Please model this.
Amino acid sequence: MGQRILVIGATGLLGGPVADRLCEAGFTVRVMSRDALRVRARFAEPFEVVAGDALNVGDVEKALADCEAVHVSIDHDQEDECVSQVLEAARTRELRRISYISGVTVCEENRWLPLVDRKLRSEEAIRASGIDYTIFRPGWFMEMLARFVHGDRVFVFGKPKRRWHFVALQDLARMVVESYRRPEAANKVFYVHGPEALTVLEAQRRYCRVLLPEIRTLRSTPYWMLRLIARLTRNRRMQNGIEMVSYLEKVGERGDPTEANAILGAPEITLERWLQAQSRRVGSRHLGEAR
Ligand SMILES: NC(=O)c1ccc[n+]([C@@H]2O[C@H](COP(=O)([O-])OP(=O)(O)OC[C@H]3O[C@@H](n4cnc5c(N)ncnc54)[C@H](OP(=O)(O)O)[C@@H]3O)[C@@H](O)[C@H]2O)c1
Model:
């Protein structure tokens, strides 16, 4: 307790709740971002805020000063290079732990996907660094469901058949905090599976039932049409999202969460509970503004 932890990627979807939860748990949390204004707007005291780029070893060295640990939650097409700069900067420090967000489909068989290759390289470098590590492999997050909603329409990508253990960000954040409290979490790779297995379509139906009751039927849009829409609208984020969902549907969920659940406590937040909390927090009428 009282350890200082640097969080790289705290302005991101996954990194934000982890930084918040570490702070609530009594750790001193330093957050690093390439965008100083953005990170200062998001993180007030007691957070320590530093501007810096993980691709720049000098920036990471400065950010790591007096830190005992670093949590890496970066989305970047040179993610492995970012991790290697973090490890380089850590060489001269007495770093006691590195935690890293990988992914549930990360394995040799899926290495053909550049993202998986980058994550495997990052994991390999972390394991070889000699620093105690905890690697998390989460999959589908409940929070991602909002990204399929555009105006009064919910996009169903193709015909989803695979089942995924949807997890809430709060459960991941709790597990990361727990990993810093438990010595037995050192040098482990943890699969993060939520409590129930659902197809994306089943999850979307439940989402609509609670948060968008005006949408009664969900129609599937074929991938070729989605790709066409993304190309015509030059929507890069949509293009990336389509390719990611199509990849996930192709390869399916991996891993056994038994060890993670035994050491860190299993994720408990069901989609139903998460939806009820969203409904109370925002009120379905105002949800459009919050998305
Ligand atoms: N989203 C999911 O559903 C999901 C599921 C499983 C695994 N993951 C993995 O979780 C990680 C985080 O994903 P996310 O969805 O939270 O991403 P995100 O919302 O896009 O956030 C990405 C974060 O990376 C930081 N970043 C990127 N390049 C950086 C650099 N050069 N130096 C410093 N910071 C940099 C960004 O910080 P600034 O822009 O502020 O610098 C931002 O905070 C990724 O590795 C992703 O593959 C995500």
